[in-house]
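User:
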Amino acid sequence: MRDAVLSGLSDHGYPGLTIEYVAEHSGVHKTTLYRRWGGLEGLVADALDLAGEDTWTPPDTGSLEGDLRALAREVVDAFGDRAEAAAPTAFVAAAFQSPRAADALRAFYAERFTRCEAVVARAVARGEAAADTDAGALVRAVSAPLMLRLFITREPIDTALADQSAAAVLAATRAGAFARR
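Assistant: Predicted structure:
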């Protein structure tokens, strides 16, 4: 089911995804889809929930600078290639049109950011960040400039921008900008 939803989102985007498409590509009758998921919103939300059950772990390069750079470059890798970006971009678009998709997307990223707290914990242990560093704010800040360009200004992103974002967050961390208030 998830593969059919992802394929449909990649091929047609959220506005073009239909129950008929998912039924045809999953081999599940559309009445079953409606009964189990209630419609497209439920299917998209479920696909996002399943996407969070992967084995992804944040980078561990041995330094906060390297970890931040690697995190930012992962965003470039995920969204920089048009074909690779189709499904995650469609999930973001769906979140603007569906409250259930928005809740699922929020939960997906909250879980990802929670995983990233290990980056900050390691940095604190190495003395690269203060003990009161807000891990969630720090890891969100790394991807924020990239997401702004992707979804608001629709500008291209690249590794140079990823590295610049990582450097800015590193400088802000060293200045205490992410201290819990």
